[in-house]
Fold these 4 entries.
Entry 1:
Amino acid sequence: MTPPDHHRQPQASAPSPPSLTRSPFESDSFTSATFVTVGRGPALALTVVWLVTRVGMLALLASDSLGIGGVGNEVRLLYRHWYGFFADGTFPPADPTWQYPPGAGLVVMAPGLLMPWLGYTQAFVVLTLLADAAVTLGLAVADRSRLTHGAWYWVCGLPLLLHLPLARYDVQATALAVLSLLLLKGRAPAAHRLGGALAGLGALVKVWPALALIGTPRGRTTREAWTAAAVTAATLLAVLALFFSSSLGFLRGQGARGIQVESLGGTALALGRAAGLWPGTAEVRYGAYEYVGPYVSTLGHLFLLLTVAAVLWLVLWRLRATRWSEATPLDAALAAVLLLTVTSRVISPQYLVWLLGLAAVCLTSRRTVMRPVALLLLPAAALSSLAYPVLYAEVVTGTPLGLAVMAARNGLLLAAAAVAAHRLWRATVTPVQE
């Protein structure tokens, strides 16, 4: 299952390639000149594929009629509605659909910078594409001797989610995590601090980007990155609290969340309902379909305990790990986000944006142990787009086809999480056999 290594040894007369242990982010500046070093042919091919696929995603968003349709309503209606509150200096008050950390308000407000020339939706999509391009460029120059598997993985993998990534702000959050990890690959303390700052900013935007720091090497790198993350997050939180009211209002709605139909728990309930063992139904709550009925609350608490167990396992791994490579921070970030994803009560399709981005970062290193995980995530992404929006009505009503799609998607995610945890532990904790 490991992708073949296409790297050719240089001819004797050719100049030596750049060191594989040195990141492009260690240089004094990160410019387009760095991109040229990967070769004009591969760079042009990647650019053409990016343009073609993104035009296709834009076309799907423009029609927005695939499956149940209305994928873009999140931006057109909900985000635009929230933007009005931010313009008045407040976070959405008493709005059960506002489930995001305060830094998410910056993403919702950002289209206002372009609104003198574009409508809100158009401005949001433009900024999303810019974040997508930043991820692509960062991955492409992660190893200046070649275009990495990671760059191609991201460019070709994201369209598997159809037009959904353009209508959610997860690409922006993923960009913060991806660039943070790429900076942490460098040796310069300034790169570590900037990487930590981006992770801290990402934590206030979507929480999970904080996990980009879980695998930083012990010692100076960890101190630099974690301190920068904490200072950035605290400073931004203070600024938002100073200029906007109700900045922490999102916390009130978190405990009331139930089991969403796309989660592993939702799949278990759907199978129970299909077998006649569970009499519950699916209803719209907090802007998404959740199951209501007996045992839902108990199952929700069980998944919370599983999330706690996943966190404790990650802490144990951090304490027990003895071997670090340049790929360890990347691999650890993907494993951590996968573990917290499969134990979540909510596994929305856009979660796959995060996982594809982190898998792409792992593939920028030849020493990664996450190649099988990356392969598992590609069909999981394709099945996610089938589940929403193509077959969402089937998923909600629990038809055999809807059940099969969700069981396959969640089975792949569960397998990916198990493989990621096993391979991370074996690579960093298990003693090497003599």
Entry 2:
Amino acid sequence: MVERLVLGLAFLLGYILVGMVVAVYSRKFLRPGEVDFYVASYRLSGIIAALTYASTTYSAFMMVGLVGLAYATGSGALGFELAYLIATLLILTIFAPRVWERARSRGWVSPAEMLSDHYNSKLIGVVVALVYLISLIPYTALQMKGIGEIFSGLVGGSSLSYSIGILLGALLVIVWSLIAGIWSVALTDALQGLIMLICGILYIAWIILLTHNTIGFTGVTSILSEKGILGLSSFWSIHVFLAYTIPWILFAMIHPQAVQRIYMPRDKGSLANMIRGFALFGFLYTMIAVTIGLLARALAESHVIPWIDPKSRDLVTPVILSIANPILSSLIFTSIIAAAVTTANSIILSLASVSSRDLGYILKPRYRLILGYISISLFTIISALVAYMRIGYIVDLAVLTTVMLLPLAPATLACWLNIKAPAWSTILSIISGFLLVLGLIVVYERPVTVFLLTVKSIPISIIILLVSGIVLSLGIVIEKLRS
């Protein structure tokens, strides 16, 4: 135990030191002003753009959340995550080039600014900014929760160690975001993305070797089939699969940190390389996480590793790391913290940009940047406090955030298709869908899993999209009739 703790802390310290060097080095690329602080003045290389997009998207959700989801619910978790990957690649391939061009020509910095500019209304930017600020707290909190769970598993599982893990993550997010804005975030993202992928490969190699030497792969198939989780388990009913998947496949369109990264590549070749690099990273990382979860379930059922109750699925990776080789577990422990930090600081920087550009648009540029700096610290602290409350599973928190962002999808799609709608219907479209989600969260007895609700077998996600889409469409029709 002492050896594991010493090694874990040593690797963590090494990661922090290297990350700090990279973050400080990144200041050489930083130019004065908001455009460079938030979107690098649209000059990221293809490799850096790919790694920051991938590492921003694939967070503690994967090696903690998705591993646990696969362990608890079976191979349906693979379909859920691959649906996201395929949908994201389609969205990026179809829409990213035109969004990239318009961001440059129109000078977009924040994602909310994109919508306010397209619909010619500053009020839309304010509304979208508020939706982001409320919705993304759970998603940022789940990153902190992932750090807390892993750190707690390393040093003994106490509530104090969980709190220390959250505090550590929060400090890294604040410092690495403030040092050089998107430059320190993107370059540390690149470092952390490589750490994530390398350590993921080591993680799956170890668990495959353990499986081969104990129960064998025939045993895995037999055990998982017997437990009913090799195919679509009872958990993955059609409405549950749709409830998880529908919000997730629109991630690239409605999450500000994902939208903002489309602006940043320096040319069309870099944008294409970003998409290709993300595709490769995403496929490998998804297969690694799901395979680990399935093999862990077979090993636990065979008593090769300790049994973890599926109801405590976020503890699967921490328990596995507690019995792995200390060096390997320390590396994986560090990679998961890296995954959580890279997503959290990307979200926080995006939230700072909407605070600065969309809520503080009446301020002078210098004061807007100060507002952004303050926002970085404030949102990080709020997210850390929510994480401390341990309000739900990591995957559920991720889907909840995405459901809360769903009302933005119709307005964003219309923007990307260059379809104009009147400002009033755009605002009503967003507010009506968002109030529907908030109302359900307030009255539902399990608010974190409100996305599982159905109305006459129709998932609530579809209803939210219909409400927002119909209101937006009515505005377009009325405007055409007037003209």
Entry 3:
Amino acid sequence: MEISKLFEEISAKMKGDFNISAQFQHNGNRGSYREDSLKSFLTNGKLPDTFGIASGEIISQYSQVSKQMDAIIYDKSKSIIFEASESTKIFPIESVLGVIEVKSQLSKTKLIEGLENIKSLKTLHAPQLITKNYGDHVRIGYYNNPPFGVIFAYSLSGNSLESLAKNLKEWCESNPPEVWPNFICILDEGTINFRNGLNDVLISSEIQETSSISFLQHKENSLFEFTSALITLCANRKIDIFNIQAYKNIGIMVHNLRVKFENKIKNRESQTIRLSDSFIQNMYENRGQPILYKDLVAKFTDGMGLIGKELFDDRVDKVYVYDPENLPTMSEILSKNTEKKPLVEILQNTPMFSGGTYVIINEETYYIPLYYWNESNIVLFD
């Protein structure tokens, strides 16, 4: 039997399942049945056994929460699931391969609903460095592809693939390509996808602002096209074993910037404070060039003869430094202490470069002297 013929038969069964689900009067029951039908199809040998599919919400390390997702695909061997209740499952974005939004009839309204849900997923993505060893001496690192978002519908809603493609184009014109869907399929009708030139593109990193929108009437082969695309998307989203330690220090979003504070800073009233959004945005936009971390350490310890500073000589990572006033280092301050004043008195009354804190912005490190944590630059940490 030809594979395409087999998928035609499976497609017919799914259509029958959908017709049964239509008999449920409660919208929740109908939705659960149509989603369960698709999940059953995919978990019955269409995707690797290590993959799981469940409904729920997705969270990030930056206090973000997605909308409720119909079908979340995750790797059971590398993931972790938080259960807020029996009916609510929470997935860290790092564990998620992608999502499928399942619709009974794909009207323009339901299309926009699905697109906004996928957008709420894709805005959670932060580049994750995946490393792989090749032999004993070669280790290669690369950033993984963003999670995918797919819309699957059982039927049209008195419209057409062409009209839906136009609706998608209108939505894309007001949203960046980073949040666009990867693929849309309507059972027994066809598919809508993106193209670069003459080539169809599926992977999130390949979808660009210049990508065009294409639709094809696959009819009874639509389910085959959907499954093929889904397998490709899963294969191209690499995830690592989930590291729960990353969630010990929850960050925030400042506009489109992912921000984490390495240390908790408190004011005189023992309230936790942080740098204000405007300060963070200004610091990021005027960041200049980073320096080697070992050079930052050298500036801290210059002329002080501290033991152990040579331990940083092999570090090749870099850090941005915020110091527009070019504050003096401790060694510079001490060298000017000709009156031999007590050290405590000097350090309490003199702004200096040392003694700062670190902020992580979009996975890059920034060093800020505490002098700049003043009343005009800080807010309470909610």
Entry 4:
Amino acid sequence: MECQVAMGVINYEVCGEGSPIIVLHALGTDHRSMKSWLEPIFNKGIHRKRIYLDIPAHGKSTITEHVKSTDDMLDMIIEFIDIVIPNQIFSIIGTSFGGYLAQGVVHKKNEFITGICLIAPALHLPGRERTLPLRVSFEEDTNCLSGLDEDTINAFQLLMVRQTKSNLLTFLKEIQPGRLLANREFLSSNWKKDGYYLKFEPFSNVDQLQQPCLIVLGKQDSICGYEDHLILLRKFSYASYAILDRAGHMIQIEQRETLTSLIMDWLIRVDQGLPS
């Protein structure tokens, strides 16, 4: 489905019924990279309306020439939410850059948010470098890379620390199709240098967030790291915080079973609400 907003079109897919969950994917892919592994969780009888969207300049979501920054992308997402689920409470899941956008959504719509899940999220760190672990790999099956183009090989090796044939096949099925649709012109523009960080610090408008939260990080994530994320944990009164070993940036591939269990626990906590 498509939703027209002021600065473009948001493509999205809705699955199921119930309380809505907005799902935001990582940079350079599309909504299918989230749907592929999240849907089996909800097929176990957990009732939610899942709203998977292609973030601006990704998948089939289009942008106008007026989109120059992450603030513009966030404005598009906020407008989309106001159109598709007006004045409704909802939860949000975001991974990587989608996790950064999710923080922006919570900042602007905190009163509507019932639960927050951030997976290997990018952080608001203007003016300072991310603290990143050295790049390592635990398993390398270079034979499985035969026949792939250099761009795909580089992406797989950068994002994964367990470079097995099985993980490659999952990457090619779930991540790569969206990579082929991403707006490379925008992503390679000055946006990343001049407009990547939001003009405001997420959550600076509240002392403590009360919603049940889940933060999951990869111990070997050389893209977003894990050490800086304690600043997030301090903002949430009720949060589970997990750093998973033998996981790079693609936690949903390399540690899927553990991540699935953590998300199911988070959904239960969202249902239970806050302590009395």
